[in-house]
Amino acid sequence: MSSSKTIRSRSIWDDAHAMLEKAKAEGISTVWDRAAEQTPACKFCELGTTCRNCIMGPCRIANRKDGKMRLGVCGADADVIVARNFGRFIAGGAAGHSDHGRDLIETLEAVAEGKAPGYTIRDVAKLRRIAAELGVADAATRPAHDVAADLVTICYNDFGSRRNALAFLARAPQVRRDLWQRLGMTPRGVDREIAEMMHRTHMGCDNDHTSLLVHAARTALADGWGGSMIGTELSDILFGTPRPRQSTVNLGVLRKDAVNILVHGHNPVVSEMILAATREPAVRQAAQDAGAADINVAGLCCTGNELLMRQGIPMAGNHLMTELAIVTGAADAIVADYQCIMPSLVQIAACYHTRFVTTSPKGRFTGATHVEVHPHNAQERCREIVMLAIDAYTRRDPARVDIPSQPVSIMSGFSNEAILEALGGTPKPLIDAVVAGQIRGFVGIVGCNNPKIRQDSANVTLTRELIRRDIMVLATGCVTTAAGKAGLLVPEAASKAGEGLAAVCRSLGVPPVLHMGSCVDNSRILQLCALLATTLGVDISDLPVGASSPEWYSEKAAAIAMYAVASGIPTHLGLPPNILGSENVTAMALHGLQDVVGAAFMVEPDPVKAADMLEAHIVARRARLGLTS
Ligand code: SF4
Ligand code: SF4
User: How many angstroms separate the CA atoms of 584 and 588, rounded?
Assistant: First the structure.
């Protein structure tokens, strides 16, 4: 393949192609180059049949004709090893989301105690509403900081071992909660389920693949209805509940005349304070003194989604654009917290004037400038970081700057509160549109990029296919940037939707693809499903809904997929998890779970076929509800 063909095969975007050409010319290797070097991958690892859980091994399971290597040294077979590995994979994802959620509890606690200068409770009404929902006494009338302190205690307790069920589980329809109870799937405590997953997968504990998968589901549910939901709700309380707002997307949001600060990672506790620091008069003056017209904060990955939802700041790119954002030569600082931040960014930043700044003790990178941010010092530290970016700007080499493309307009900010507000305070108009067949169903498209798939090809094609079929798409995570760049996050994209969906979008002035937030904000989709199911008096597994992660890569995406399925939402994955080495685990994931939780996984790399599969589920569910297809 010619070099330009190779570059075009890596991504569907012009801004990516331009930066891949530049990277090549400047001798910079990217995630795609390293993926090529790593191909072919180890077959045992791909199939999930390798185990390193003790040092009698490592062991690999093979289906050899001579019958050797069928069992690990301890006697574990392929089913047990695959299920154990998958369980730990899910636990990793649940831990990531939930530890992020814990950081929000700690921040709200510091605010309640008056120990977090610069932070405040921006949505007091939501604080009171959530506190009342979770049982805080006199939440409507007591001082906000006292209410927050009580809410903090309830949220911390959800991480512990003294509960029989997580507090937000009460949002799920009773019939679903009863099912979880019967199956032993009710999540009790976030840390408890994660720790128990690690315990069960130690040598000599849970050696039954079905039992392991049930606990994997329980661990994932602790993420979706616990850690992630706490993360979302407390972020709204602290930083404001998102409302629809306009913004822009792609590498064109970077500016030649401004100090460009790219926030990367997941936690709005850092990125919100960076944004606040850039608005301080003294800091702005320092930027002007350095010759910059402005300070431009733009987002990468999910902390970008957090700021986009609440503040309308532009998105420079998703997962596979993060290296290329530095290659523009215009990124003065990358400010990272944690998750999805490729270590390669440190090396690439070192090829330019870019300051790569880490802020979390949980996310240290050798070679980075570490400025540790905690609620008590965030204001001062974030100011310091912005000054580092201004200093870097003075060292920017204009000859190496190339900002490709023009920004594309998007509309974001569709929290459940904003959606209900647009509907007049009740989900009834939405339900009416579903009953009438104008909206045939909903699919949450979530997650990532993966260099195994041409960047955003599956994310965009699936989204287009679904809206064309009158299926509304709810986007979170890195899919957002893809849908935005494709022009699907504006009300005018109604023209690309089927007739029924287009009419609903036009009457409400909303896009056919609603951006609902970051990866933890998939909890908003769970809550919306629960609300629709409860209003209709059915289970989530009866609703015409689906989920998909066409280009997923991470443990967190697997946890999301697992909690979606366990909540009754059929879920498509564009790539299989590493479970194919066990026929029993694979059969359970693709079929068996259907009989247990009313939903299962689908694996299909072709996004058009994936749309067919999701549509078939929606049609079947509509029929069961007595609705026309
Ligand atoms: S736990 Fe069993 S299968 Fe895994 S490495 Fe040890 S001996 Fe091998
Ligand atoms: S969508 Fe995937 S790649 Fe993007 S930030 Fe979330 S987990 Fe990371």
Answer: 6
Nearest atom within ligand 2 for CA of residue 518? 6
Helix axes 228-239, 268-278, angle to 10 degrees: 20
Is there a common fold for 78-239 and 251-400? no
The complex scores an ipTM of 0.96
Nearest CA to ligand 2 atom 1: 447
Contact of 516 with 525, CB cutoff 8 Å: yes
User: How many A from CA of 589 to the centre of ligand 1?
Assistant: 23
* pLDDT tens for each residue of 449-480: 999 999 999 999 999 999 999 999 999 999 99
| Domain range annotation of the chain | 3-60, 78-239, 251-400, 412-624
155 labeled binding residue:
no
Cβ-contact 543, 621 below 8 angstroms:
yes
Specify the CATH architecture of the domain 412-624: 3-Layer(aba) Sandwich (3.40)
Ligand found nearest the CA of 204:
1
Would you say the CB of residue 557 lies under 6 angstroms from ligand 2? yes
Dist. CA 558 → ligand 2 center (Å): 11
Q: What is the dihedral of CA 297, 301, 303, 305, to 10 degrees?
A: 90
Q: Could you tell me which CATH class the domain 251-400 is placed in?
A: alpha beta
What separation in Å is there between the alpha carbon of 206 and the centre of ligand 1?
13
| 249-286: pLDDT as tens digits | 999 999 999 999 999 999 999 999 999 999 999 999 99
Q: Does the annotation list 45 as a binding residue?
A: yes
pLDDT greater than 90 at residue 81:
yes
CA of 72 to the centre of ligand 1 (A): 5
